[in-house]
Design a protein that fits this description.
about 0% strand, Bacteriohemerythrin, iron, metal-binding, metal ion binding, Hemerythrin-like_sf
């Protein structure tokens, strides 16, 4: 379902490779949501949230270092958006995950979907220009 396509490329190879990983995490979440054979998805959801938290922290740091290196004029705005995304991930209510597993996955997917499409397409692509 989630696939990194040509239109998401920034023209900066390492950033594009890192964005591919974010698409892969979204795809894992989508596949977990659609998996009717796994009745208790709690541990899988926690793993996805941890993976997303760890990877976005790594990615944002690398992206911000690059923006600083090239004196990117919109770096401050990007940093604010990155911090807000990390904050949203850190605010995941683990009690509600256990009670509403598919809803939790859907919420995670919506967060990822908004980020992947809006942030990468509207903001990150500007870094490569």
């Amino acid at each position: 379902m989630y696939e990194f396509k040509e239109e998401f490329k920034t023209g900066i190879d390492f950033i594009d490779e890192q964005h591919k990983v974010l698409f892969e995490i979204a795809d894992k979440a989508y596949n977990l949501l659609k998996n009717d054979f796994t009745t208790d998805k709690y541990d899988n959801i926690l793993e996805l949230v941890d993976e997303l938290r760890d990877y976005t922290s790594f990615h944002f740091k690398a992206e911000e270092e690059y923006m600083k290196k090239i004196n990117y004029k919109r770096m401050f705005t990007q940093k604010i958006e990155h911090d807000a995304f990390i904050k949203r991930i850190n605010e995941v209510d683990f009690r509600s995950i256990d009670e509403n597993q598919n809803e939790s996955i859907s919420t995670l997917l919506q967060l990822l979907n908004d980020w992947l499409i809006e942030h990468i397409f509207e903001n990150d692509k500007l870094i490569g220009q």
